[in-house]
Amino acid sequence: ETFMGRVSFAADGANQAAGVLQQFQNGKRRIIAPPLLADGEAVYPMPEWNLREFKQAFGSGSEIAVIVITSIGFLYSLVLIVLTAVFWKNPIIRASSPTFLCGVLFGSLLLYGSNYAALINVINLASCNIQVWFLALGFIVMYGSLFAKSWRVYRLYSNASMEIIKISDLQVFFNILIWFLIMTILLIAITIAGDLQPTYVSLDPYRPANDYYACIPTRPAAFTGVIIAILVYSGLIILVGLFVAYKVRRIPFQVYDESSTISFSMYNVAFFVVVLAALRLSNAASKEVLFVLQSVGLVLCVIITLTSLAFTKVTFIMRGDTVMSTSQSSREGRTSASIRGVGSGINKSTPSEVDLESKGNNNSSIRAHKDRIVFLESLLRKNNITFPAWKAGGSSSDSATSSSGSDSS
Question: Is this model's pTM higher than 0.90 or not?
């Protein structure tokens, strides 16, 4: 007589009493049969030994690949910063507002920093918050600087009064600072209200090797609300950029026309955001695949923007070019606009936006004079003011005349 009942044996010697079936689960012995005595369910098939222990550590193939790609982008930005500093006084760089060009490059470094903080096997309280802050502030600094300096060009060129106006670097910086402070307030709200915490996520209690840590808010509703506010605010910034790009697209000087750069950059940002959002909502990709796509997409967006904005200007300098005219001016057969002669006596801006130097020999002075007339023609035509056509062989006494007959310089 036993606790399992009376023990009896068959003719062949087999035990006829009910047996107990046990299984080791997560380091503990569990009875899985008979049902009346079971204190656990049978696990079948049993997981392989390498899946029975949680071993999350830095060094996966996807992490190494993302670090390498991000580091290439990081070095690319650093090289462009150095080249901008070296050619700081070059007319092409000066016309690009080098202070804010460096702001664009510094913003790219913040965006790359968010990639380093988002590594899937290095999750802690600091990384959870750093990746959000660097991503949001990097976007504002990079694209805010790009939009703001193009906004200054738009304001100067759209001035119909023909009065000399000045928009200093400090005024442009103040606009960026306002955008930056608003985003900072939203980030403080998401840090306090959302309270992102590194949280252990168990997918299979019997295969802990598949488990992972993730940044999960302790107050999901508050976190979602602030995220929506950040996305709406970022969308408004993008709309401002697209508006500026539309307005500066017809400026007859390529060095000031960054409409293509802004439009193409926003197209790439929108494309990657839509793709990632679709994959996240559909659960069509694993956590690791999403991590790689998000990181690589961010690097590509930044590199494409910097290449179209800064690298092309550096290329012009390295080739020794001093002229960057628009295709529209070329089609009309007008004299190409050199940087040195643009805007003298018209919408006067800071030296970083328009170079007003008058140094050089007679040839450069003549070229500058022709460039000023090209600029005057485009500005007068934009404001529906009639003027006598300027001929290459005309005298310097030719003057632009408004429709009322008064002379204007």
Answer: no
